[in-house]
Design goal:
heterotrimer, A mainly alpha, B alpha/beta, C alpha/beta, A: mainly alpha, 10 helices, C: alpha/beta, six-stranded mixed sheet, four-stranded antiparallel sheet, 11 helices, 13 strands
């Protein structure tokens, strides 16, 4: 603190200072929570061990893109069919997607209820809907890192390596990438949020997410196979809904003989939307019901 | 039970409730509550299940009342819940806090959630933790802190964003005697020096009496008593006598001589009277017991709460 | 103690690896209510657990009614413990929950015992609601009922008044006093000095794992320091009273405070308290106020734990 020439010393108390500065709108509260959640689930601002799993999973998700581009560069005359295509990408990284979604949403939702933080949030300029919106946005943003991210990355890498699409093809390709990336992120986010809304324990929620991704597949497919159930039942196999949708959007042919391949594209799309809406609804309803703020 | 209203002529009330009704299914938690909570430090008392907690959640806008009017800091929490809560700081009763988070991060995050820009939030979180005496420990994770420290972290979290009203739920819970006094002194400072209105929900009458300017006592879903402590405790001043033994004999002896005496927890309470002091002195001298204490005793908050008359 | 003490500890220590929770504690307590005080982390809960036989001292002996609570099964039926932790409450009714304890204690008529215990804490034995539906205060009282169902001679309670509203607290304190007056040994751990003062004057103070003090807290005050006790007396004849007290040697010093008050210093609080009334009567002085300064429980406690 400077003193003017000639004046003596000044005494500053260390007492309380009120805050007269800017105060934001309630939207800011949502944004803060979303950003805070994104950082937490990715392990940013936390001890290193919390970054390990997210980092590994992300790496697994991006590796095929790297490999694909690398191969394309190194082996100029490799037939296109041997590279990992956009269409099969979601299918290819299915386990990474499962792992990541089992990691993220539980970390985003469960600890707040366990630690009493939810009560503190709700005692602030928020209500349940805003809280959920903020959390969902955070989870969605992070999921996009693993669904949209690798596809865009592959696109950019191809372009940089001179193997990109023509200028005419580009808008359509980008649109396809966007649709698949966003729908996949929405779907995985929605169902993992729904599962996480049932328990305060992260580990239980993680297991729940994995089970939800696995068990219906087994059940549906055996029912279709042995009990002659309709093929539509395979819409319960969420990873395959996304995987198959991806093929359809990118207009790529594949054949594994699974029931979902026999369904029309609009059916599959409707199935994906149903998963997204159902998950969101379940999560929302669970949070409305819980009287306990903890 | 009278629906007494504690009015503070002058500055507008911090909380104003008229005919507030809240039902849960067939149970009526609040049955026409009338209260005005003024500036300063107010104690909110009441039996478990009498409506105190419901009242608090209505003030916070966490639940919506069924009937009546309620204004908090001039706004209706039922319709303006977001803005009302932005102006309130809250320290819950339970001790659950995110365990891995360093205290400074926790308080900063809460301040940001209460709409402070980041830089301001960081600075004020820092200040708040120093103010509650946790300056040196502010980077410690909350989980590694003792109960006493956690209570102070909660308090810091409640005041960091410079709210107009602070709600504290059992702020001395789990604290040992020395820590309790420190916490009460801290709260008194916050209420007087920092210019925040405080409402303390507590079961500890003596503590409320020590630091509150006014109280609101909720019983059976309505306000049983409300007012400044000074007003509530008005009444003739009697006195309290403590002797080192034979308390019942002393009481009996005094009654024989026409002095009205009540015994409570091994102490004797006497009403205001001429000659009462001398009667006690003489009776004590006759019995030959030791006179430990003889102190004036007006109506205490406990008397008000329990409805006893001196 | 001429008679056998209800609870006795001798050179009791307890450590968990490098952490010393209790360090060389020795005391004896008898019937009546004794309060156990101390800062958080002082070792009170550990001590209580050892006194009930739930934990084994690393060193030293614990005796309840003359027997070892840990190894002697016969004394278990005479000890009631009301622990602090929020127990995981089964979806039972209060009566069923307390009855369970009665059965475990092998009581001949568990239903009647449970009913009696629940009524003792002023709850309704016929209430059909399950425990998770009870408020914290009610659950607290059920816990106390459970600890008392077998009519134990020794009762130990760890922070039993938490979560209770003022009326419930007053009821509970009255209950403890009654139990103590019946000749049981009631040991109550508490942080709230105003409550402790109402329970009685016997205290045990633990700090940093050690026993800082034991006994009547007023006598403890008298033992504290070489700080004489200061007593403020308001009277209409201060000079006469002061003169008399000085002559009688009941005080070390007396200071006039205005026209109507005295501040007296004494090393013998008891003697002063005995001398005051007779002397005042003799000198025709009215005693309008007699107030010991800094002799209350909080002062004693502060002194003991901050040493």
């Amino acid at each position: 603190m400077s003193t003017e020439q000639g004046t003596g010393a000044r005494l500053f108390g260390l007492g309380y200072r009120g805050y007269e500065g800017e105060r934001r709108t309630p939207r800011w509260a949502m944004l803060t929570i979303a950003v805070f959640t994104v950082r937490r689930v990715l392990g940013l601002g936390r001890p290193a061990r919390h970054k390990v799993l997210p980092a590994i999973t992300l790496a697994i998700a991006y590796v095929p893109a790297l490999v694909s581009v690398g191969l394309a560069i190194l082996l100029e005359d490799l037939p296109v069919g041997d590279l990992i295509t956009y269409g099969e990408y979601m299918f290819f990284i299915g386990s990474a997607l499962a792992l990541f979604s089992a990691l993220i949403a539980p970390e985003a939702l469960c600890p707040d209820r366990r630690s009493g933080m939810l009560g503190l949030y709700l005692a602030g300029p928020l209500d349940r809907n805003r809280y959920l919106l903020a959390k969902s946005a955070a989870v969605l943003a992070v999921m996009l890192l693993i669904t949209l991210g690798p596809l865009l990355f592959m696109f950019a890498a191809f372009v940089a390596a001179g193997h990109g699409p023509t200028l005419g093809e580009t808008p359509e390709l980008l649109l396809q990438i966007l649709v698949v990336g966003v729908v996949a992120a929405l779907g995985y986010a929605s169902l993992s949020l729904a599962v996480s809304s049932f328990t305060t324990r992260r580990a239980a929620a993680a297991v729940g997410v994995v089970l939800l991704l696995l068990v219906p597949v087994i059940v549906a497919r055996s029912a279709i196979e042995s009990a002659d159930a309709p093929d539509e039942l395979d819409l319960l196999s969420f990873p395959f809904v996304i995987g198959e949708l991806s093929y359809r959007v990118f207009d790529e042919f594949h054949y594994e003989g699974t029931p979902i391949e026999r369904l029309s594209t609009s059916t599959i799309a409707a199935g994906a939307v149903a998963w997204i809406v159902a998950g969101a609804l379940v999560c929302w309803l669970r949070y409305r019901r819980t009287e306990n703020y903890r | 039970m009278s629906d007494a209203i504690a009015t503070s002529q002058g500055p507008p009330p911090v909380v104003s409730a008229r005919g507030v009704v809240k039902r849960y299914g067939r149970t009526t938690a609040l049955a026409g509550l009338e209260a005005e909570i003024g500036p300063g430090i107010t104690g909110l008392l009441g039996s478990n299940g009498a409506g105190k907690t419901t009242f608090l959640s209505l003030i916070l806008g966490l639940r919506i009342r069924d009937e009546g009017e309620l204004l908090v800091l001039g706004e209706d929490p039922a319709t303006s819940g977001l803005t009302v809560r932005a102006r309130i700081g809250y320290a819950p009763e339970h001790h659950d806090l995110p365990s891995e988070l360093p205290a400074a991060d926790f308080v900063r995050h809460l301040a940001e959630v209460h709409l402070l820009p980041r830089r301001a939030a960081v600075q004020r979180a820092n200040d708040a933790l120093w103010l509650v005496g946790l300056g040196e420990e502010r980077f410690r994770s909350v989980g590694a802190m003792s109960t006493g420290q956690r209570q102070r972290v909660k308090l810091a979290g409640a005041i960091a964003h410079d709210p107009e009203l602070v709600l504290l739920d059992e702020p001395t819970d789990g604290l040992d005697p020395v820590q309790r006094t420190e916490m009460l002194d801290l709260i008194r400072r916050v209420g007087t020096e920092f210019g925040m209105h405080i409402v303390i929900s507590s079961h500890h009458l003596e503590e409320v009496e020590r630091i509150c300017d006014a109280v609101v006592i909720v019983e059976g879903g309505v306000v049983a008593h409300a007012g400044s402590l000074a007003d509530l405790r008005q009444g003739p001043e009697g006195f309290l006598v403590e002797v080192d033994e034979r308390t019942e004999e002393l009481a009996a002896l005094l009654r024989q001589r026409g002095v009205d005496v009540t015994e409570r927890d091994g102490l004797l309470l006497l009403g205001a009277s001429d000659g009462g002091h001398d009667a006690v002195r003489d009776a004590v001298a006759e019995l030959g017991v030791g006179l430990r204490r003889l102190v004036p005793r007006g109506r205490t908050l406990e008397d008000v709460y329990m409805g006893t008359e001196l | 103690m001429s008679a056998q003490p209800s609870v006795a500890a001798e050179n009791v220590s307890k450590w968990f690896g490098p952490l010393v929770a209790v360090s060389d504690v020795t005391f004896e307590i008898g019937p009546g209510v004794t309060a156990l005080l101390g800062p958080n982390g002082a070792g009170k809960s550990t001590m209580l657990r050892m006194l009930c036989g739930l934990a084994q001292p690393s060193r030293g002996t614990v005796r309840v009614l003359g027997r070892d609570p840990r190894s002697d099964v016969s004394v278990a039926g005479s000890i009631g413990l009301v622990p602090q932790q929020e127990t995981v409450f089964e979806p039972l009714t209060a009566h069923a929950f307390v009855r369970l304890a009665a059965v475990l204690h092998g009581l001949p008529d568990p239903d009647a015992a449970a009913t009696a215990a629940i009524e003792l804490v002023h709850l309704d034995p016929a209430d059909t609601r399950r425990l998770p539906a009870y408020s914290k205060g009610m659950r607290q009282r059920v816990k106390v009922a459970q600890g008392l169902v077998h009519d134990p001679e020794v009762v130990m309670l760890d922070e039993p008044l938490t979560g209770l509203d003022p009326r419930q607290r007053a009821d509970m304190i009255a209950l403890f006093r009654r139990l103590g007056a019946e000749g049981r040994c009631v040991l109550v751990s508490s942080h709230v000095l105003d409550e402790v003062e109402r329970l009685g004057s016997q205290i045990l103070v633990m700090s940093q794992g050690r026993l800082a003090a034991a006994g009547d807290f007023r006598e403890l005050r008298a033992l504290m320091d070489d700080r004489p006790l200061r007593v403020r007396v308001r009277t209409d004849r201060p000079r006469e009273l002061a003169g008399g007290l000085l002559e009688a040697g009941s005080v070390l010093g007396a200071r006039l405070d205005g026209d109507d008050a005295l501040e007296l210093d004494t090393n013998d609080a008891r003697a002063l308290s005995r001398a005051l009334a007779p002397l005042a009567r003799e000198r025709g002085a009215s005693l309008l106020e007699v107030r010991p300064l800094d002799a209350d429980l909080e002062g004693v406690f502060r002194y003991l734990v901050q040493r």
